[in-house]
Design a protein that fits this description.
The complex is a heterotrimer of chains A (837), B (420) and C (174). Chain A has 837 residues and is α/β, with parallel strands linked by helices. Chain A contains 23 helices and 37 strands. Mean pLDDT of chain A is 91; it is low at 1-7. By secondary structure, chain B is an alpha/beta fold. Chain B has 3 domains: 11-230, 3-Layer(aba) Sandwich (Rossmann fold), CATH 3.40.50; 241-326, Ubiquitin-like (UB roll) (Roll), CATH 3.10.20.600; 331-415, Up-down Bundle (de novo design (two linked rop proteins)). Helices cover 42% and strands 13% of the residues of chain B. Chain B has helices spanning 21-26, 31-38, 43-53, 65-70, 94-101, 103-116, 131-146, 177-184, 213-217, 219-225, 227-231, 264-271, 298-301, 331-345, 351-368, 374-387, 394-409, 411-418, and strands at 79-85, 119-126, 162-167, 208-212, 241-248, 254-259, 281-285, 293-295, 321-326. Chain B is globular. Classes of the chains: A alpha/beta (837), B alpha/beta (420), C alpha+beta (174). Chains in contact: A-B, A-C.
């Protein structure tokens, strides 16, 4: 295990812990060195991912150093070994680093008594809450009391102090002040790791208690993680309050299907009375994958994992008879679908969303290609083909980036679009990586960026081309003379390793297509391709858009026309009719087949509706934005008459004389790996491989590091970009100009808490979802006579809507931010008119 | 040359209006500072003078001042000098008198010290209750700026010096040096993990020297008259004079500046006038509420008050806030007071002090309330012993001193209390 | 006369005497069940019941320790939040679902030992029979003790803050 830490430091020291002679890198803390050797030193306030504070005093051990002669500096020897002098008092193992010849002893009476005393002190204030406390069963305090406590309390029960229980810190986290042992893990997490100190301590002494400083309370996307690392049941999540005992639940490995980071999740499931005895998911917990999400989850992934309520589920195939959809059998439905598909032939389109698995995409594309139709992707962001060419090199791990490396973020509010990417880039910045941000507005990532280039909306491609040194033919304002751009360009090209994250902040399809081309150009000019930790990352807004691109789907500029002119539309896993313009087109399509989990708006106008399975009910793989392919596993059983998407497609294909795998996702994957060149190196079974990860969190260490789950079902594998084996050339080009006709330009932006289906299905997150809104510049709003929080009428793309106005004085004048999926459809930047009401 | 007779610090006893800057300057005040800066004296030489003088920290720890200054990391800049005027130890009121009655010597002392450690900024951290004093100090700082004693390019050199006052908010723990630095930085006043120590990593992670008011008020005279002059006062290992804050059951409580090594008897009976109503003396707390209680027998009364001798009677000299207890003081009542104090003042960062102080208080309350038994006394002793050696800072450690010494040395008081 | 070694009538007569004596001269020990029933011992482990406090609030706080202790996995517990408007038990938590599968239960009494509030008790009733397997699942309503007075029924509205501790100092904490 020492190999894990060895790569990072050079010098090793020899020391003895509990009579075991071990070697550890210099600078390792005693508790970590002991854990590497398999010895557990009990801790409460120490967490391997945070700086030690030595507060709880639980890790007290006897530390001895070799004695040295004061005058000569020579080590004093005794019986051939260095004479060891132990400190007069015990020292905390979490604040002392190992040094040569150190002797640490944890089994003496003094240490045992010390641990017993500290536990006795903690329990003198801790309430007798185990029966009603959610942490029971995964509680470090329980485990350590059994292990090291005295068994009896001498504290008088009547004098125990009573504090507030069940205090809400915001809507998501409950605080119990009596249980808190003042270890400060939560406040340190918010401060050190996510740079959002919205909770802190108040008062002092035994009255030291956690309070929240933000309005709404605990206003952070990371609050759920504090309940994982809290060593007692002081911080608990609102959605899992009294849900079940940890030992009563089963754990299933899965992957979050919200954004494109694809954090590893464990779903805990149990039968539930109010669901009629069904096996349901009780909670989502992070699963340790040090290359993706470490041991963290953002609150959206943790609380918004349901995409459809049981009552809204499609449970039978439906066929249109006149105005209504009637239930039918699979045979009849599939026969009809196949018949119509055969008739349509080349004039069919298949339109997919971003949350299907690779296996689904593969089968659907195969079917479409067999008929000669178009494989379309319902997405407003381009560049997936470039990512497959110059994506991150194999073996990339952002955790390895630091001093001497550069990270460029362009057109992305990283924390809103992919929170775990924001966190990992922040940590890279703290290790010394130079972060360059080129955005048209302020984002939270600015705080750790060394180079902040403020562009105007529409200049994203131009700034990248300027950084690449392209001079000819740029019609837009020439940015390359800007000193900041020059400095950033220099840093980027001279960095040892460089990664570009490009998002869709203010961009539609054409804008992101140009931007991705420009990024590819920049990377190839600066020779940052084809190696680990070098390449392009597209911050998609759905889990498996990269997989869709890899399997052959492409978004279309003319989607409405494509649908209108098609004779057969196969709509899988998306709801285009929720955008009026596409609803009209679909009404003109001759035959529409919808394959989904709920009766969506598109399904309501479809001719055949096929019930599919939610991803928590079946297996498959997702490809993340870093091109890491990871497996997910079924957590709950599927309703009887539903089938996985790949199987439905295969059954249709069979009727059209095309043989596709349908029995298991693994077989589809086998097929896929043969036919899709990029995936040839993958083996479905080997995707479930795991290696030992450091730090050891969850599992055998009695939950010292938190209640994240061990990863036993797959770390996933990254696939190599094409440029590692081929030569690909990129050229500079002239970017399009964003024309502004009217006074206000509406730009699409992403917000994490939107009004998408997963958010609206999550009960606990409801209070955090805003009503539809747009953001205006404060001065612009004044001119219009609009105040913050009032309703205004906006007209965009011919549609009018009433929304709330939010003001931001750091926003550029004339710009209106329109969040996606918040009630106003927007796909590209365009003119918008605003009227106060 | 400054006129010094018996008092080095409380010189207002000899020069009544020394608080007037003109009087101070007439006596030769600020000459040392001017000389040190304008002749660009080598800071190392200054550090050596202070080291050789044997001056030890007067805030309670008694750490050799010159040695502390030598630990300042010269590879990390800038340096800071922080003056600890928190003075929250019960029974200590010496710094207040020095700052109120002999302010200019205090200022000159800290200014010379700042030069010695090559610092350009001095922060005086005062306890929140000293807000009136802080206002006065601020006015005096403004006056010094006008006189050209503070600011940029002092005496035509490149040396710049600024002094800032900062008020605390009623926390005894902020007298602990790293908690003070945390408070100064605007964070919660909780001690840091040590090592690293402030001379290496201090205020804003820069090398910082934190010294007590009394310690620094000696410096200008030491530099003026030399290390050997200072060694004439006091003993070999504890050089110089000390301001003893005498309080408790004595006729004349107050601050008395005496050479270190003066026996307790002299302080209590000669200067303090003896016990009220001439009652028999019972115990001495030499270091305020943080002390072990000394049994006031003849051996103790004849013990010299210096850092080496007091441990012979089972206590520490500390900040020399000498509280005298006579036979009207019940020790169980006394430790109830001290445990309440420490429970109130514990910062709450580490478990043993936070929980232990709370537990000890409920035990002393129970003993005092006559519902207690001998088991409670034994438990109290055990709890105090369990706190010792496990805390993050000295507050927790010292909270147990009074309790353990009272139970061990005055068992009769406890017997009487529980067997009523 | 028969051969004495081959056929000895004395033991037979002795045995017959024992039968004769026990039939006519010893008391009858047969318990004529179901008309007569043998009284159960003090710690008899029979049918479970969930007890209440004297004021009617349920003792069960839904902690599921009984389910954890059960060697036969016979108990299923789901907990829910209590509040002062709709109060079932003192404190924050009560058992909203409580089911015991009587066919799995081996009547060992571990659940009774494990319960921190002494809510579940194995009582005296042993006459349990079912005609269908589903009847063997005893639900919360079947297991809870009944109340004498309507004011003591649960759920009920209580004074705010009166019962905020899950393990309170109430009467009969036995």
């Amino acid at each position: 295990m020492t190999e894990v830490l060895e790569e990072k430091t050079t010098k090793l020291v020899n020391l003895t812990i509990d009579n075991l002679e071990i070697t550890a890198p210099e600078g390792t803390l005693i508790v970590d060195a002991a854990k590497l050797a398999g010895i557990d030193i009990p801790v409460f306030c120490y967490h391997p991912k945070m700086e030690p504070v030595g507060m709880c005093r639980m890790c007290l051990v006897d530390v001895g150093m070799p004695m040295r002669d004061r005058d000569t500096g020579e080590t004093i020897m005794e019986k051939g070994k260095p004479k060891i002098q132990f400190g007069r008092e015990l020292q905390t193992g979490c604040t002392v680093s190992v040094s040569e010849g150190m002797v640490v002893v944890g089994y003496t009476e003094k240490v045992k008594k010390g641990r017993q005393d500290i536990l006795e002190f903690l329990l003198s204030s801790h309430p007798l809450d185990c029966p009603i406390c959610d942490k029971g069963g995964e509680c470090p305090l329980q485990n350590l009391t059994i292990g090291y406590g005295s068994g009896e309390s001498r504290f008088d029960l009547e004098e125990k102090q009573h504090l507030a229980k069940h205090v809400p810190l915001g809507d998501l986290i409950w605080l119990d002040r009596e249980r808190c042992i003042q270890c400060a893990r939560c406040t340190r997490f918010q401060d050190e790791i996510v740079d959002q100190p919205v909770i802190g301590f108040q008062n002092r002494g035994r009255k030291l208690q956690i309070v929240t400083f933000s309005e709404p309370g605990f206003d952070s996307y990371w609050s759920g993680n504090t309940s994982d690392i809290c060593p007692v049941g002081a911080l608990t999540t609102a959605d899992f309050r009294f849900g079940a005992r940890p030992w009563e639940m089963q754990a299933s490995a899965s992957v979050c299907n919200q954004c494109s980071v694809n954090c590893n999740i464990t779903f805990n499931t149990r039968r539930e009375a109010k669901s009629g005895g069904d096996l349901v998911i009780k909670r989502a917990m992070p699963r340790q994958n040090e290359e993706v999400n470490e041991v963290w989850l953002c609150d959206k992934g943790r609380f918004a994992y349901t995409s459809v309520k049981k009552d809204d589920r499609l449970t039978q195939p439906l066929i249109r008879e006149g105005e209504t959809l009637v239930e039918t059998t699979w045979e009849k439905a599939l026969d009809l679908v196949a018949e119509k598909a055969k008739e349509a032939g080349k004039e069919m389109v298949s339109l997919v969303g971003g949350r299907l698995s690779n296996e689904d995409y593969f089968n659907i594309n195969q079917l479409t290609a067999h008929l000669g139709g178009k494989s379309l992707l319902n997405s407003e962001m381009a560049g997936g083909d470039l990512v497959s060419q110059v994506g991150l090199g194999t073996g990339s791990n952002i955790a390895d980036m630091g001093q001497g490396d550069a990270i460029l973020i362009v057109a992305s509010d990283l924390e809103e679009e992919a929170p775990l990417f924001w966190l990992r880039v922040k940590q890279a910045a703290e290790r010394g990586a130079e972060v360059i941000i080129a955005n048209a507005r302020e984002t939270r990532a600015d705080r750790f960026a060394k180079y902040k280039i403020r562009i105007a909306f529409g200049q994203e491609t131009a700034v990248i081309l300027s950084m690449a040194g392209a001079k000819e033919g740029i019609a837009v304002e020439f940015l390359a003379d800007d000193a900041k751009v020059k400095a950033a360009a220099k840093v980027f090209s001279e960095a040892n390793n460089a990664v570009i994250y490009y998002g869709s902040d203010g961009l539609g399809l054409s804008g992101s297509e140009e931007l991705s081309k420009a990024c590819a150009f920049l990377l190839s000019e600066t020779k940052h391709t084809g190696r680990p930790n070098n390449g392009l990352v597209a911050v998609w807004n759905k889990a498996n858009l990269q997989g869709a691109w890899d399997m052959g789907f492409r978004p279309s500029e003319t989607l409405a026309a494509d649908l209108k002119n098609a004779k057969f539309a196969y709509v899988v896993g998306n709801d285009p009719a929720s955008k009026d313009i596409l609803e009209k087109s679909l009404k003109d399509t001759d035959f529409v087949v919808v394959q989904d989990v709920r009766l969506s708006e598109t399904a309501e106008i479809a001719d055949v509706v096929l019930p599919a399975q939610v991803y928590t009910e079946r297996e498959g793989t997702y490809t993340s934005a870093e091109r890491r392919v990871q497996r997910f596993y079924p957590a709950v059983p599927a309703p009887e008459m539903t089938k996985p998407d790949y199987k439905i497609t295969a059954k249709i294909a069979k009727r059209l004389d095309l043989s596709l795998e349908k029995i298991a996702a693994s077989l589809v994957f086998l097929d896929l790996a043969e036919k899709v060149a990029d995936y040839a190196e993958l083996d479905y079974v080997r995707l479930a491989e795991v290696t030992e990860q450091w730090p050891i969190i969850g599992r055998d260490d009695l939950f010292y590091g938190g209640t994240s789950y061990q990863n036993t079902q797959g770390l996933g594998k990254q696939i190599s970009p094409a440029i590692e084996t081929e030569t690909i050339k990129y050229e500079a080009f002239v970017p399009s100009v964003l024309s502004k006709k009217d006074e206000f330009l509406a730009v699409p932006v992403t917000t994490l808490y939107d009004r998408g289906s997963t958010m609206l299905s999550s009960e606990v997150l409801q209070p955090r979802i805003a009503d539809p809104y747009v953001i205006l510049n404060t001065a612009d709003a004044e001119k219009l006579g609009v105040e913050a929080g009032v309703q205004i009428s906006v007209k965009l793309n011919g549609k009018t809507a009433n929304v709330t106005a939010k003001l931001d004085d750091s926003l550029a004048k004339g710009i209106v931010l329109v969040p996606r999926s918040m009630g106003i459809p927007i796909s590209d930047p365009g003119s918008i008119t605003i009227k106060a009401k | 040359m400054s006129k010094v007779d018996k008092h080095i610090l409380l010189r207002h006893h000899e020069i009544p209006d020394i608080a007037n800057i003109k009087t101070y300057q007439a006596d030769g005040g600020f000459e040392t500072f001017r000389k040190v800066v304008s002749t660009k004296m080598d800071p190392v030489e200054l550090k050596n003078i202070v080291h050789d003088s044997g001056l030890r920290g007067r805030g309670g720890a008694g750490f050799p001042t010159g040695l502390k200054w030598k630990f300042v990391d010269d590879n990390n800049w800038p340096h800071y000098l922080v003056v600890n005027a928190d003075e929250s130890e019960p029974g200590t009121f010496k710094d207040r008198e020095i700052m109120e009655k002999n302010p200019w010597q205090f200022f000159e002392g800290i200014m010379v010290s700042a030069y010695a450690i090559s610092a350009n900024d001095i922060y005086i951290y005062l306890r929140g209750e000293f807000w009136e004093l802080a206002h006065v100090l601020d006015e005096q700082i403004e006056l010094m700026k006008k006189e050209g004693l503070l600011g940029k390019n002092l005496f035509g050199t490149e040396y710049e010096l600024n002094i800032f006052t900062h008020l605390g908010a009623g926390a005894y723990i902020c007298g602990e040096e790293t908690a003070l630095l945390e408070s100064l930085e605007g964070k919660m006043g909780q001690p840091r993990v040590r090592p690293p120590f402030p001379p290496a990593v201090g205020l804003y992670a820069k090398p910082t020297v934190v010294n007590n008011v009394e310690t620094l008020a000696n410096v200008s005279l030491i530099v003026e008259k030399g290390a050997n002059w200072y060694r004439k006062f006091g003993t070999e290992k504890s050089a110089g004079t000390k301001v003893f804050s005498l309080s408790g059951r004595v006729k004349n409580p107050g601050n008395y500046e005496l050479p270190l090594g003066t026996p307790f008897r002299e302080l209590i009976y000669e200067h303090g006038g003896g016990i009220i109503d001439d009652r028999p003396i019972k115990g001495i707390m030499a270091a305020g509420a943080s002390s072990s209680i000394i049994v006031a027998d003849d051996k103790a009364l004849d013990t010299p008050m210096d850092y080496e001798s007091v441990p012979d009677v089972g206590a520490q000299l500390g900040s020399a806030s000498v509280i005298i207890l006579d036979d009207t003081v019940d020790m169980s009542w006394l430790i109830n007071k001290t445990t309440h104090f420490f429970k109130h003042e514990s910062c709450g960062k580490c478990t043993p002090c936070r929980e232990g102080a709370f537990w000890m208080t409920s035990l002393t309350e129970r003993i005092r309330s006559k519902k207690g038994t001998m088991e409670d006394v034994i438990l109290l002793e055990d709890v105090a012993k369990n706190i010792k050696g496990k805390t993050l800072c000295a507050l927790g450690e010292f909270s147990t001193e009074a309790v353990l010494s009272a139970i061990e040395r005055f068992p009769d008081d406890f017997d009487a209390q529980v067997n009523k | 006369m028969a051969n004495f070694e081959r056929f000895n009538p004395i033991p037979i007569l002795k045995g017959l005497y024992t039968t004769f004596h026990s039939t006519f001269f010893e008391p009858v020990v047969t318990v004529q069940y179901p008309e007569e029933k043998r009284p159960v011992s003090k710690r008899f482990r029979g049918r479970h019941h969930l007890r209440r406090y004297d004021n009617g609030l349920e003792k069960c706080i839904g902690c599921a320790l009984c389910a954890a202790a059960c060697p036969a996995d016979a108990i299923f517990v789901e907990a829910s939040e209590n509040n002062d408007d709709v109060r079932f038990s003192p404190g924050e938590r009560y058992a909203s679902t409580y089911e015991i599968n009587m066919m799995r239960c081996i009547f060992c009494g571990y659940c009774e030992d494990a319960c921190p509030t002494q809510a579940i008790e194995l009582g005296d009733q042993y006459e349990l029979s079912f005609t269908e397997r589903v009847q063997a699942i005893y639900t919360r309503d079947m297991l809870l003790d009944t109340v004498d007075e309507l004011e003591k029924a649960t759920p009920r509205k209580v004074e705010p803050g009166a019962f905020d501790r899950s393990i309170p100092m109430m009467e009969n904490p036995d």
